[in-house]
Amino acid sequence: MSTTRKRKGSETRKQILEFAEAAVLEKGFGATSIEELITAVGITKSGFFYHFKDKGALAKALLQRYLDREEILFDDIFRRAEELNDDPLHGFLVGLKMLAELLADLPETHPGCLVASVTYQEQLFNQEVIDMNRNGVLSWRKRFRSHLDRISERYPPKTDIDMDAMADMFSALVDGGITLSKAVKDKDVLPRQVMLYRDFVKRVFLG
Amino acid sequence: MSTTRKRKGSETRKQILEFAEAAVLEKGFGATSIEELITAVGITKSGFFYHFKDKGALAKALLQRYLDREEILFDDIFRRAEELNDDPLHGFLVGLKMLAELLADLPETHPGCLVASVTYQEQLFNQEVIDMNRNGVLSWRKRFRSHLDRISERYPPKTDIDMDAMADMFSALVDGGITLSKAVKDKDVLPRQVMLYRDFVKRVFLG
DNA sequence: TGTACATCAGTGAACGCGCGTTCACTGATGTAC
DNA sequence: TGTACATCAGTGAACGCGCGTTCACTGATGTAC
After folding, report:
1. Is residue A89 part of a domain?
2. Same domain, B186 and B84
């Protein structure tokens, strides 16, 4: 039916972003060509440039979309976890477990973290994208720091602990866990790291 | 003096690898051109191909060198740490502290982990390099697992804990810590993650 | 309901540039007799 | 000590290909009167 019918532009744009994200996570931004994206989507090169003014605009849209999605995911999980449990520690622990299960249930190895991909190819991006990336990481720190602070009030840790580092630890573990998972081709590595983080949190506040 | 004098080939080769590693960690393998390397080193393109039969051979040499260097570094640190301390737990803890200090003393942000860089650009490498990368990660797992096993004998943990995951946790934390350090442009993020891992080890075996 | 115009979502052809790779050649150094 | 040959560490020119980007154009859909 849609042979003559015109496409909706936002659909095409979404498809470009979809293929681009997969490709970037597999081989990096520099090695992902516009050519391969348009082949996958089924438009011409000029069609691509109707949607993105240049390759930099694609990068920006890609990262923005990724950060937004990630934020929604975390919001969702920890909101649901806290609905089940109004104690901040146990809510957080439930959230971490839910996250680990979600990752364990993925059919394949996690495709990768765009923030890591951008970080390892910084020279290819303009300042705007680099700043977005930095702010993304800092917002994760803020998110987890706020969980930890609320927990600390009710469960003061017996020994001094670096709370910003402990907040970052989650991001580091997920990020590094994804890399290890991909490198050894074993999808379970990642959820097991999340569970270890959960174990650490328990030891700090309950130990 | 050396205007007419001929260079030693192994020196040139080493220089190529040096520049290549820095470039790859900054922008990825695909975006690192032979052209820029030869400009940096001061030879012609054909000179490059005298040393490496193609770009794939450069990738292989780069990763091999990186893994070898990393192994020597870990061997050194933990051997020295265990000389100071024959208890396996305390030797390991001292080694982790030495490593954190070494990282904290770096003048700049850690330049990056080649294994992560390769992992995030897998499609650009041949099977041989991908396998080397995988084996590198597995050898780290083996190394830390053996530390943990020796510690477990003398300090049996009170609760069950996933020892392979705990071995991987070090790699994940370093890898992720490097990424975060680079992303937020704060070199202290990385050593603080190493210290948190040390904290975790203490809690598991002494808590 | 019909028509004029605007917007959307592209097409098709051309561009210059830089990339990795090849090939024939070279000049300095090392080695054998 | 002199000479012949081999090896080392490159040079210089050329190659074809794919890349990102531009530009003039188009045909379907939406909107105003």
Report:
1. yes
2. yes
The string of DSSP letters for A60-87 reads HHHHHHHHHHHHHHHHHHHHHHHHH--S
Amino acid at A190: L
Q: Which two tokens stand for residue B44?
A: 């012609």
The pTM (predicted TM-score) of the whole model is 0.96
Contact B174 A176 (CB under 8 A): yes
A22 is in which domain, residue-wise? 1-52
Residue A58 within any structural domain of the chain: no
Instruction: Name the residue of chain B whose CA is nearest to A139's CA.
Output: B184
Given an 8 Å threshold on Cβ–Cβ distance, is A137 in contact with B199? no
Which CATH number belongs to the domain containing residue B42 in this structure? 1.10.10.60
Give the count of domains, chain A: 2
Q: Cβ(B118)–Cβ(B63) under 8 Å?
A: yes
User: Mind listing the pLDDT tens digit for each residue in B125-138?
Assistant: 999 999 999 999 99
pLDDT tens-digit series, residues A114-165? 999 999 999 999 999 999 999 999 999 999 999 999 999 999 999 999 999 9
Length of chain A: 207
